[in-house]
Write a structure and sequence with these properties.
The structure is a single chain. This protein is mostly helical. The chain has a single domain, classed as Rossmann fold. It contains three helices and two strands, in the order H-H-E-H-E. Strands 1-2 form a two-stranded parallel sheet. It starts with a helix and ends in a 9-residue tail after the last strand. The relative contact order is 0.18. The model has no long low-confidence stretch (mean pLDDT 82).
Length: 81
């Protein structure tokens, strides 16, 4: 499963639970989305392209709006021990 497919599945699952979801593909796209509206929560993939989720959330916490953020990482089938 690609990162994009994983994001789509997460958005679908959260949407079914009643959340309003804005899914983006990169840290840059997330910053653009944050400039338009401040979410109540931020779920961030640690394996985002170009800038990883850890760096993005660290920057968000120091320079962005105060938003509770969760850093998550998708486990691939071959990554399990």
């Amino acid at each position: 499963m690609t990162t994009s497919a994983f994001a789509t599945r997460c958005a679908l699952l959260l949407g079914r639970a009643g959340a309003t979801v804005v899914a983006v593909e990169s840290a840059e796209a997330a910053r653009t989305a944050l400039a338009r509206a401040i979410p109540t929560r931020c779920l961030c993939d640690l394996a985002m392209p170009l800038e990883d989720g850890y760096s993005f959330v660290t920057t968000l916490r120091t320079t962005g709006p105060r938003v509770p953020a969760i850093r998550a990482h998708r486990v691939r089938d071959g990554d399990r021990s």
